[in-house]
Fold this sequence. Notes:
Keywords: DNA-binding, Transcription, Transcription regulation
CATH architecture of the largest domain: Up-down Bundle
Structural class: mainly alpha
GO molecular function: DNA binding; DNA-binding transcription factor activity
InterPro entries: TF_FadR/GntR_C (IPR008920), Tscrpt_reg_HTH_GntR (IPR000524), WH-like_DNA-bd_sf (IPR036388), WH_DNA-bd_sf (IPR036390)
Pfam families: GntR
Number of helices: 9
Protein name: GntR family transcriptional regulator
Distance between the termini: 24 Å
Number of domains: 2
Largest sheet: 2 strands, antiparallel
Helix content: 55-70%
Strand order of the largest sheet: 1-2
Strand content: under 5%
Order of helices and strands: HHHEEHHHHHH
Amino acid sequence: MFTxxxxxxxxRGGPDRFKAxxxxxxxxxxxxxxxxxxHTKLDAGVLCRYLNVSRTxxxxxxxxxxxxxxxxxxxxxxxxxxxxxxGDVSEDYDLALTILKHIIASDVASFPTSRxxxxxxxxxxxxxxxxxxxALAFKEFIERLFESVARAAANRKYLQVVxxxxxxxxxxxxxxxxxxxxxxxISADMCELVECLQKKDVKGAVENxxxxxxxxxxxxxxxxxxxxxxxxxxxxxxxxxxN
Length: 243
């Protein structure tokens, strides 16, 4: 229905497609940031007034979000926001880990440097120019890195899965990085992963990903609980953020 990157919005599909992409992007940003209380009904007729579009592009956006399992589509009842779920997040990580390890083990050693375009880790500012949001900056770096690995495989399905994984687990990732001790651990691990990939050290990269996965699973219940507390306290006036 849509391209897998929100920033690839264009009008090649006509004005209706462009409006649907805008509605999709704006709704998705709020949903993955847990700014919508869980179990909130997402009514296209109401949302269209805040998005300044007709019902059709909003409904198209909601259908796509439900396909990505970011929201629920309950037959006969409509679309609803969903709370974070340990089982779902664990499955997302397991699938993404399997794909990334497969790409690295099968292909990374043969990738030319031009195909493995790795992003650079963010460098925290020092002194009076202290970085305002180090956790957010590193979260975005991690997501770009995973997508760079998936993109290097030249497999559209892999890239779509990793992109969806990044969106569905974004808030959990951000919460994890906001813990000082975990930020230090994760940033060190990710820098090591980049180094392994640059050296085409397959064994080191796979072991690194396995170690990071185990560490995430050890605290996943706490992260999901914290995320659901945050979303439960989200403003009931969240739709005003769509304007």
